[in-house]
Fold:
Amino acid sequence: MNAQTIQRRLSACGIPCGPELAEKLRLYMALLLDWNRRMDLTAVTDEAEMLDRHLADSLSALATPGLIPETGSLIDVGTGAGFPGMALALALPGARVTLLDSLRKRIDFLAAVKEATGADNVSLVHARAEDGARQDAHRERYDLATARALAPLPALCEYLLPYVRPGGMALCWKGPALAEELTAGRRAAHLLGGRAEEPIPVTIPGQDWQHSLLPIRKISRTPAAYPRRAGQPTQKPLGQ
Structure:
């Protein structure tokens, strides 16, 4: 797929995209397809579907003015193949972006993307979400924490909010399950020092996905007891 096709498609989705960003995203997609032949990074192998499902969906937050600042610090927790974090880092070169994942092979892939695209604003961290949030270098250090398709909302709050400074925000990419998870998620966010706001529908022209972005404002510091040890946020979710 060429850069012009990427630029046209993202622009049709209301996502700002110039030629330079489109070329970097083209390189990113090419590397993902290449590496995916050797390791399991994504189940999506069709280029058109990859463009919509991964890139357009990841960058959909940029279609809402002011939702994500162009500068500041961002951590993408459980980043996987870099969605949404690497895509946002390429689109927001003035932001300082940390990509955290528990699997070394994913970190190695993202290091290759960083080098190929010249993404000097990206830092890579190999750690579990619960462990990284216990480190002084990361706990409540970020303006924004993001995650996409990572966990049910109550667990997601516990993964993300410990990274966010008071006054900052967690932003969750969620599918149709959000409707069932929202009540417990709001309770979990409250316990962790956050306040869940109203979901923002995501529209990708030509797709009938029920996707939403859920902002969670960080109102106060997260109690020292959270996050709990690895596995507990999903095994015993807060807010139930």
